[in-house]
Amino acid sequence: MSHIIDRRKNDKGKSTGNRQKFLKRVEGQIRKAIPDIISQESIKDSHTGGNVKVPVRGLDEPSFQHDPKTGKKQIVRPGNDRFNEGDRIPKPKEGEGGMGRQKGSNNPEVTEDEFTVVLSREEFLKYFFDDLALPNLVKKLMASTETFEMKRAGYTRDSVPSRLNIKSTFQQSLGRRLALKGFLDKKLKNLEEQLANSTHPNEIAALKEEIEKVKRQATTVPFFEDIDMKFNNFERVVIPVTSAVMFCIMDVSGSMGFHEKDISKRFFTLLYIFLTRLYKNVELVFIRHHTEAKEVNEEEFFNSRESGGTVVAPSLKLMHQIIRTRYDESWNVYCCQASDGDVWSKQDAMECKNLVQETILPAIQYMAYIEINNRTKQSDLWQAYNQISNDENFAIRHINEVFDIWPVFQGLFRKRNGVKAG
Amino acid sequence: MMDKEKYRAMFCNPNWDYATLEAADEITSRIGKEYLKLKTYPNQIEIVTSEQMLDAYALTGLPTSYPHWKFGKDFVLNQNNYTKGRMGLSYEMVINSNPCISYNMENNSTCMMLLVIAHACQGHNAFFRNNYLFREWTSAGTIVDYMVFARDFILKCEEEFGEEEVENVLDACHALMNQGVDNYKKPFRLSSVEENERLKKLIAIKRENFNELWKTLPTGLKLPEATSGEDQKFPKEPEENILYFIEKFAPALPAWKREIIRIGRKVAQYFYPQGATKVMNEGFATFTHYHIINKLFEEGYVNDGFMLEFLKSHSGVLYQPEYNSKYYSGLNPYTLGFNIFMDIKRICLSPTKEDKQWFPDLIGKDWLEQVHYVMENFRDDSFILQYLSPKVIRNMKLFTIVDNEQENEYEIGAIHNERGYKKIREQLSNQYDRSSYVPNIQVTKVDQHQTSKLYLTHTIQKDRKLDIESTQETLEHIRYLWGFPVELHSKNKLGINENTFEA
């Protein structure tokens, strides 16, 4: 007897384990290809694409094979339309392919092309950031990654007046008053009946007194009693912090050309993708500055050609102000500043250093300064920042070319002391 | 039993349900048994989604297999091709097991379901059950069981010895799959229960024989047997099953690795008949569904519309692009096999003068008996050599191309004419002979006295040399398993060594 089984509801992904094993094998190639994938898309789009395609060279599974170029072979083919026995046909040149060797189900000498592995977003990020972590995650975050929230948890009889739940207290009181009223009404009715039937004067007097008492009782039922009181009850529930805000500060003075902005953008993109891996909700604040600092949207941040002299300090002040007004302590704040290092004066640089050291760093998790130029001479800003670069949540790096971005990024966020991300 | 009208209504509704499948199975079984006299295993029909079909592809159709990256790679490869539309999934997939498991795609129409059930659950099933290669070389009753054992064993090894080490052994096994088959010896049949018991016994024997004292023996001491027979050759006869030889005689291989090699060998052995009967198997299954569906039509179970859909799918399966078409990818085994089986039937029923000359044994015989005889007793190369008729050669316009390494031109060796039939038939048979695509490599010597070096010999056939790169890589795998140096000599027919590989 035959069995018919509907397997469609069964677990899919029987091959998942094998697929993982395979990915592990091509890990090296995936890692190599990934930095190229960071494209010029908008920062927020570049990680939401879902699938990421990574070209991978076919993995050989060697076995004993004949060299297809050697020997004397006879091959049977179908559909002869013009040949006669003994006809001679020139062989196709090397690499042209042709009758001698083609892909086919019964041809054991099949070659394999390079093919692409489609990674899910999760897999992609795993390879991308596998050995990266926010450097000072433990020190500053562990204590504060969690925050408390008061959550409703039913009612309680005893609490402070501000938590009184008026509706349910009133309901309780109404119920109580109705019950008491019913009871007294019934009692009154009974007594009145007895009074009507009674003839004995003593008894009548007693009954009248009783009726008077019950009537008084009925009018003095208190509107609220202690037992009516219902207070909202709250419990402290731990909620993890899942939000982060990243400040992108970019110098847009005349010296920042397309190349410099492109590098900054790629760097910001990486940082953004990285943060989205750690936090559910990541906000971006773009600040551009020349002589004055301004908060702008992403589009304007990268594309506007407005420029002027360079004063850096106002941008840091603006950032600090934004943090104070918009982001309370439950936010994890990150900052990345990109500049070619040009500043108006040494004084401005010093002011920046002081601002960062005294007001910014205490309020945020991590700040990175990247300087994009290929000069050998160190800029004033670099020199100023260099004085505080030993600070654990501050780092400065040089980037000249696109291919420097990934190593620098890795260097900034390399896991230390086995600290794990996520 | 329902009446015919009810079946008809079901089969002519393109949307199938459970009752339709049951009816389809019941009726194809009945016709298979009564009309085509098929003996089959019980069927287990499974309805799957395309993703599950991809899973099944990756495990080469087995319901379960041990974990390995190769299967993941195949999955990714197929998935890429499938999602890009470069490849369609087949409508079904069958496993040579008892009960015979077949996967059917959920998005098949009712007509396709009937076709697929007739094709797989009657055609392939009967072929697995009756063809001599499958009967003697595989054990349908225990394969599913055995693969469960294999999976569990490999998982245990991964846990105990690390995934990497297990993977190395499996990689080596996969490289030697073609050299892991007994072509002439029939294998024993072992179920997982028996396998487990055999393992237990092995462990018990080892424990009994284990003696701390042996560890104190001075090193370098040679046992008398080893030194005595300087002239004794080992192995006495060349051994073609390299995996078997390593499993039995590798000098320093832990028992668990031997067991994994054994698993690799069993799997290779299990798939060996499938490789050797592709044309026959597909041809016979197509022949079967063609007859069953036509019978259904004759008896009035299906209508004209159904038949139109059927014929479209059927001819799609049999499409054979010509040699110069961009769709050409070798001979279509369905077409070749179906044509030959149909021609056997034709020759039995209405032979021509030519047939009387070529197939005197078939003339006037019962066609069904002959088809059964052929299906049971041949494999692709012998099947083609015996039954590829001039008519089929003419119909398919077969011709041969001679590709000689020494010359700059191809030569047309034979075409579909009087002079060419025999040549084409021999040539094609040759093409399906395993020895023409699996190099003939055998274990010829082991240096037992000093180096433990393993010597292999490749016998060059038709001047076909070994591919240098893949040979070298495969040798590395052998060396890994054997644990000592390996040397391979490519010898021509005069016995002169033409090429030496070392690892």
Automatic annotation (TrEMBL), chain A:
InterPro entries: UPF0229 (IPR006698). It comes from the Bacteria. Residues 1-109 are annotated as: Disordered. Residues 1-14, 24-34, 58-70, 79-96 have a biased composition (Basic and acidic residues). It holds the Pfam family DUF444. HAMAP family: UPF0229. Belongs to the UPF0229 family. This is UPF0229 protein AHMF7605_05780. It comes from Adhaeribacter arboris.
From TrEMBL, chain B:
It holds the Pfam family SpoVR_C. Residues 16-435 form the SpoVR protein-like N-terminal domain. Residues 439-492 form the SpoVR-like C-terminal domain. Transmembrane segments: none annotated. It comes from the Bacteria. NCBIfam families: PRK11767.1. This is SpoVR family protein.
